[in-house]
Design goal:
The chain has one domain (about 5-155): Rossmann fold, CATH 3.40.50. It is built from five helices and five strands; from the N terminus they run E-H-E-H-E-H-E-H-H-E. The protein has helices spanning about 15-30, 65-80, 105-115, 130-135, 140-145, and strands at about 5-10, 35-40, 95-100, 120-125, 150-155. It has a five-stranded parallel β-sheet, sandwiched between helices. Helix 3 packs across helix 5 (about 140-145).
């Protein structure tokens, strides 16, 4: 039996590598299926240091509710801009999600559970084991926390970065 993926969750940090994961998510989902585009914000709490990877969201302070709403709206708009042009022709529905959670990996797994994703697509920045042991790895966290299939895209050294056909 060949599986038909009706619902795929893909997460992005808005990097070029994450854009490749989005391409794979749309390639994997069946015609007429749904892709859930997710971005998880690690907005720090007042009095704690921001994660340096996400410090651009909250420069030196916890955001006010109004700032938080603006950040969410901006991220949702950026997510909608990442929908490939060919998605509509394949009748693929896209739902965008912006979540606040200091546990990015846990938020991804919970979002996949909530939308009953048949597949999770996530990019890995391919950091070394030493750096991963210090900083942690969102991809590793997701792999260790879910029973769902996970497609992990990684940086490549090939000149042709994509094996899938963009439409």
């Amino acid at each position: 039996m060949i599986a038909s993926l009706r619902t795929v969750l893909v997460t992005t940090d808005f990097s070029e590598l994450a854009a490749d994961a989005i391409g794979y998510a749309y390639a994997a989902v069946a015609e007429g299926g749904t892709v859930h585009l997710l971005h998880v914000l690690e907005l720090h709490a007042l009095g704690s240091a921001p994660n340096p990877l996400y410090a651009h969201y909250a420069p030196g302070h916890a955001p006010s509710p109004e700032e938080r709403d603006r950040i969410h709206a901006t991220c949702a708009e950026r997510l909608r801009a990442l929908v490939p042009a060919g998605a509509e022709a394949r009748q693929i529905r896209t739902e965008v999600h912006v979540l606040d959670d200091p546990d990015v990996g846990g938020a991804i797994v919970r979002a996949a559970d909530e939308c009953d994703a048949a597949l999770i697509c996530i990019a890995s920045h391919g950091r070394s084991a030493l750096v991963r042991s210090v900083l942690g790895s969102v991809a590793q966290s997701v792999l260790g926390s879910t029973h769902r299939p996970v497609l992990v895209t990684r940086p490549t050294r090939r000149a042709d970065k994509n094996d899938y056909v963009k439409s």
